Amino acid sequence: MAVAYTKVTPALRLYRGVLLFATPFILLRLWWRGRREPDYRRRIGERFGFVQLGDGRSTIWFHAVSAGEVIAAAPLIRSIADHYPQHQVLVSTMTPTGAEQVEALLGDVVLHRYAPYDINFAVARYWRNVRPKLLVLMETELWPNLIHQAATEAVPTCLINGRLSERSARGYRRLAILSKPMLAQLTHISCQYLAHAERFRGLGVDQQCLSVAGNLKFDRAIPEDLAVRRDELMARCQLQGQLVWLAASTHSGEENLILQCFEQLRRRFPQLRLILAPRHPPRAEELLALVQSAGFPSRRLSSLSELPLDGAAEVLIVDQMGVLLPLYDLADVAFVGGSLIPFGGQNPIEPALMRTPVVSGPHCFNFTEIVEKLVAAGGMYQIDSVASLAETTAKLLEDAELRERAGAAGYAEAMANKGASQRVADRLIQLIGNTA
Questions:
Q1: Architecture of the domain made up of 226-416
Q2: What global pTM score does this model have?
Q3: 338-349 pLDDT, tens per residue?
Q4: Identical fold, 10-214+419-434 and 226-416
Q5: C-alpha–C-alpha distance, residues 276 and 284, integer Å
């Protein structure tokens, strides 16, 4: 169990003061982001603690920041909701895309509210309205005020699918005056891999509060209509008989490098089509201008009607949510972004589940263990330069048997790592039982 540590330390007081001072700037940023993504301007009151829940039943609260975390946790959350029909399950997110995934995947069994900003008065008000029996945080969502509130109310708090890179661990060590008391207030941390548990232990977390369950993202549920959606996209985008290179979850600074590679690849593969799926779809307009300046005919996915338009686009820009899985399924080769720049990479499990060979850049420190597993299995290629990206992608594009072997190897590795959801569910059921 977590250490009973509820004193407000000087570091926590300073943290609270800084956030209170920053509140007007937080509101300004929310308004500014809402110019491009209007959903950020809706339900603002929830972010400051003004929430109401469905009924008077006790609440199990899951917090996941955005769409990826919701998708990963969905099988687990559904399992807990089914196991405890006498409780209501709240899933909070920080982003509208996360909210959309909650509605799509869990809307029949849970409630969604936006999470409060970690400002003391917002957290306290939110807590009074929710009164959770258990607080479950996803991956890296460690907020000092929220965790302190749970400890003060003697509510168990569990971090699941926990990951801690060496870079993040160094940051926590530098801020140990704030992070050490916060970590001590967690009831349990269920880590993805042993290396993550060792880093948490190095920060002072009690060994008894740590476990290793694997990565929830390997348990991603595959939609029953996936093949239908894949075929519909292929027809709309006029991709039949074409080689398709999907660059997914890309970030600013990567797309120009991808386009340089695409220019080289088109010389060898004139029938090659590129699909650009940025991590943040509202960037589509910016990417449209970038692609057009590079001289490639391009279209946004949302501009394609149910019937294909005349003339196939050489570059298709994805400006919609919920289509990445069928796009991975139809692609011949996938590049996973956030890795050509020092962002730390994005999740390479989804293309592996679709039997699609994966290529990434050198910066994958957020997914080190997964990348190592997939590379060792032969389902993923990690390159160290733009030139080797073009070379490796070309090697895969010209050899269908190699693509098939790589895709099968990645899929087999993904299947071998399933089961984390059930292990975490068993742990949470035990914690809930201890609080009964």
A1: 3-Layer(aba) Sandwich (3.40)
A2: 0.90
A3: 999 999 999 999
A4: yes
A5: 9
